[in-house]
């Protein structure tokens, strides 16, 4: 649209964060509906708690009063540390606010100075390597853009499948639970199991145990469809990284930077693979991070193909 670079950067960042904020607004609006049914939630949870107490008494011989004593002692210890928990919660909220502000600023400045960074990379390398540097920069831009688009499509498809499944089963708040699943599914491997736990608890609070089992089975089937068809076609085709190192990267990312590290692990690993594939000394490592090309080959065939040909 022929905007100056500064104006274009501001508009782009505002649109992106506005889209994210709208998503959280939709989620919060759906969550506000639950407050109308909170008394029913409370009754269902209390009934389930009583059934668990009866089961513990029948199988382990622990009477109700003994169970309540254990619960009261645990609750009193939790209340004693309530001030510490409140302080931790306030600190987390302030850290989250600071993270959002700096993320906004980082994104804006990266958009403004992206050409400057590319020139720095060119100056850092010999002129004979400039084509490789520009190729790496172009591939990184392509992969990151396509990865984000693929994630959005994956969220939309998974949310639609979950909404359809929950509506057919007859689960209350199917739209809310579908949105939660789509958001949690951004975290590979871990998000789907977290959403299954959350949805199972909400379903138990509003329906029967049979519905909970049916919902869990339906979500597992959707997860299998997502893992074997949606991710390889929509996301995996853009990021050529094998599942073993993707899982390792997610674990390391969580240890280093929490949830943000889990989200950024796969695109960072894909960027590393792009660089390794274009540096002669690092090509074996790029091959290690990539998908298996010769799935039907046995070890003997691979070794035979790698060994030098015999003199005729």
- Bin the strand percentage: under 5%
- Uncertain residue segments: 78-86
Count of distinct strands: 0
Name the structural class: mainly alpha
Apparent shape: elongated
Binned, the helix content reads over 70%
Question: Mean pLDDT across all residues, rounded?
Answer: 76
How many DSSP H or I helices?
Answer: 12
The N- to C-terminal Cα distance equals 65 Å
Biggest pleated sheet? none
The radius of gyration computed from the alpha-carbon positions, rounded to a whole number of angstroms, is 26 Å
* SSE string: HHHHHHHHHHHH
Characteristics of this structure?
single chain; 312 residues; mainly alpha; 12 helices
What does this structure look like?
The structure is a single chain. This protein has 312 residues and is mainly α. It is built from 12 helices and no strands. The protein has a domain of 112 residues. The longest helix is centred in the middle third of the chain and has 40 residues. The radius of gyration is 26 Å and the shape is elongated. The termini are far apart. About 3% of the residues have low confidence.
Please sum up the structure shown.
The chain is mostly helical and 312 residues long.
Write the layout of secondary structure elements.
Elements: H1 5-31, H2 38-60, H3 64-80, H4 82-112, H5 114-124, H6 130-169, H7 174-184, H8 190-206, H9 209-235, H10 243-277, H11 283-289, H12 299-306
């Amino acid at each position: 649209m022929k905007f100056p670079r500064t104006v274009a950067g501001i508009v782009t960042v505002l649109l992106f964060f506005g889209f994210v904020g709208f998503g959280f607004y939709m989620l919060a609006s759906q969550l506000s509906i639950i407050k109308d049914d909170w008394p029913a939630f409370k009754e269902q949870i209390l009934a389930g708690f009583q059934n668990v107490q009866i089961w513990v008494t029948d199988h382990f011989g622990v009477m109700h009063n003994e169970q309540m004593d254990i619960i009261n002692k645990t609750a009193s210890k939790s209340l004693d540390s309530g001030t510490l928990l409140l302080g931790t919660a306030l600190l987390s909220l302030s850290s989250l606010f600071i993270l959002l502000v700096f993320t906004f600023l980082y994104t804006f400045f990266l958009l403004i100075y992206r050409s400057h960074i590319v020139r720095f990379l060119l100056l850092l390398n010999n002129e004979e390597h400039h084509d490789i540097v520009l190729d790496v920069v172009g591939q990184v831009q392509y992969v990151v853009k396509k990865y984000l688009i693929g994630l959005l499509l994956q969220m939309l498809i998974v949310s639609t499948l979950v909404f359809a499944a929950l509506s057919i089963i007859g689960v209350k708040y199917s739209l809310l639970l579908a949105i939660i699943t789509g958001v949690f599914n951004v975290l590979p491997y871990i998000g789907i199991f977290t959403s299954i736990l959350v949805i199972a608890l909400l379903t138990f609070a509003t329906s029967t145990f049979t519905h909970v089992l049916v919902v869990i089975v339906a979500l597992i089937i959707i997860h299998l469809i997502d893992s074997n068809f949606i991710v390889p076609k929509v996301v995996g085709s853009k990021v050529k990284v094998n599942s073993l190192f993707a899982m390792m990267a997610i674990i390391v990312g969580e240890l280093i930077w929490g949830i943000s590290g889990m989200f950024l692990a796969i695109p960072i690993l894909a960027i590393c693979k792009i660089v390794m594939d274009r540096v002669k000394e690092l090509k074996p490592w790029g091959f290690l991070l990539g998908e298996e090309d010769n799935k039907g080959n046995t070890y003997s065939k691979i070794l035979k193909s790698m060994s030098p040909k015999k003199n005729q």
